[in-house]
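cron nightly-structures :: item 1 of 1
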Amino acid sequence: MRIALIAHDKKKDDMIQFATAYKFILEKHELYATGTTGAKIMEATGLSINRFQSGPLGGDQQIGAYIAENKMDVIIFLRDPLTAQPHEPDVSALMRLCDVYGVPLATNMGTAEIVIRGLESGLLDWRAK
């Protein structure tokens, strides 16, 4: 599965904890991330990650393009709903594309853990079938 990992600035530490805790699952998949998030995850975990630009510089749009081209299977996007984001239209567009193409999107730690456990158990192998 191709998984994108994205985190707003105030959620980057949470994403690192998530990636560390679930490294044994994530390392079995093809990982992508926006720039800074990807660098921090790689540094903390040693996971191999294909990095796009940072979100505000177009990384969200690059991941959106992969969704539209059927090249992304799962998005884990730890969002900060309490801080205004300068690239909010890009974030909204990314979420919309997930809805349009039926790509699972986790936007908080609770849903991220459900999605990762689904990957572990094989319940999210819907694209492979």
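cron nightly-structures :: done
The longest strand covers residues 2-7.
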